[in-house]
Amino acid sequence: MKRAPGQFSSGETEAPNLPGFRTWRAVYIFVFAFFIFCVVILAILARAFA
Amino acid sequence: MTALDYFVLLGTIVGISIYGMWRARGSQNLNSYLKGDKETGWGTIGLSVMATQASAITFLSTPGQAYESGMAFVQNYFGVPLALVIIAAVFLPIYRKLNVYTAYEYLGRRFDSKTRLLGAGLFLLQRGLAAGITIYAPAIILSTVLGWPLDLTIIGSGAIVILYTVSGGSEAVNVTQKYQMAVILLGMIAAFVVLIMKMPAGLGFTDMLRVAGGMGKLQAVDFSTNPDKRYTFWTGMLGGTFLSLSYFGTDQSQVQRYLSGASLRESRLGLMFNAVLKIPMQFFILLLGALVFVFYQFEKPPVFFNQTVWQAQANGANGAKLLSLKKDFATVHAEKKKEIESWLAAKHSGDSAAELRARTEVMSAQKRSDELRAETRKTLLAADPQAQGNDADYVFITFVLDYLPHGIIGLLIAVIFAAGLSSSSSELNALGSTTAVDFYKHVLRKGASDAHYVAASKWFTALWGVIAVSAAIFANLVENLIQAVNILGSIFYGVMLGIFLVAFFLKRVGGSAIFFAAIAAQLLVIAGYFTLTISYLWYNFIGCAACVLFSVLLQGFFGSRGNSGNLQTA
Prior knowledge:
Chain A has one helix and no strands. Chain A is mainly alpha-helical. In chain B, α5 (80-98) packs antiparallel against α12 (264-298).
């Protein structure tokens, strides 16, 4: 049986090194939050000027 | 176009191309030629990924889409953030760990040689066809603008991109894309500023949005569950996620961009750069189109934006009818303009009844205006069935040429050219790499020297360039360029993604099961496309789901006999 590629432990496990983001999980959460913010803004814009 | 415009256009395009070739000089081993020696920072990767996707089609078609149908198209990109996060978290570490040149090389290690060749073959088929459209799109506009023969424009733009992509490989592509993207952003901001300045005196930005929104051009989010609707929140989230996952995660023209990252961090940040900025950027381009629509409520637009087609018919058998339609259109436009001014005046004075009345009149006039445009289109097509019936791609360029100052016109033409070159270069780079690595090196000529493979990569890149240019010369314009590319992608991408998802997550499925499952799923999607009326975005989901399901069922049939592959994890 082959090993599933998803089970690899990557040799490159660098932290994001961004101000305010200590882990990649935090970066991904920020991306999702920003996406929701964009959708809300678009919906509000359409409603405000409909 | 004046000498100043030509100076800006040629200086920008030729200058960036020469700089890219100079920066990438001496790239003579396969690693540097295909991956740029893995030294690229996240900013360059981010701009490169963005430039690869944002082709000339984006800047020609997208504002026209907003002008015609509003901003719903932005929902097509709602799947991008989620897809890029999945790629950064799951796909990217595996590609980097295995140190592959192409995404399909990974399929060979995970499954077997035939699955690798199937994946590479699907990519070459899909991307090879799309590469012709990518070169054709800016060429048709530039030929109209410059008065050059279309074929000569295609060959000229094709020659530039072939030259620097072949000579400098991946590094030249990355470097040129960074500066091409800077030109694109500068040009679009300049167009936006000039557009605002050209609006009628006294019309504030809020009024512009009010006119656009009131006439249905700002509806960006639609939660309708009607499957026949092309762009909704749900098609964007489901179909868009699958399309983006497939495009960014398995299309070599994108994979090659982020594989050139100096580290996993640089590659990931490059992807996150796009995850955050893609939707705002598309929104900005669509808003530009919506504001061009507002502008043309106060300045009379042509009844049909492709003036070349119009002029060809205006003196023909249907000339009298076309001129009559043009006259009626001008009358309706004048009435509509008057009613819009009344509507805004009533809004400012707080007279709700007058506002409602004027707005109803505006909508009625807009309906008549749309009907006259549709009738004009029908008349043009009746006279010449081969003529381009959809003029949406000409809306933005017509505005640029008629209303922007000289110098800025040159810059905007450079934007279209730069966007076309940036996408084409990634495509040719990826097509050449995949042919060289997955077919030539893997099947035809094993064990040759590095220099031999670099030379082969260059020859294959040049060959694909010639094929793309030939396809562009023989292409007839389809209804809408950007949709044509997306439809083509949706037919093939779902199955491709299915293969990769099985590879990543279903460890029990072997090479034979996925190989035959992928072929069956691809046939199903093609049959569905020709028989069903659902939005093309759904085919990304259907193709992927069918591929995964068939592979699990076939694995049950094949059992351990179907397992092959030689995954090297070290």
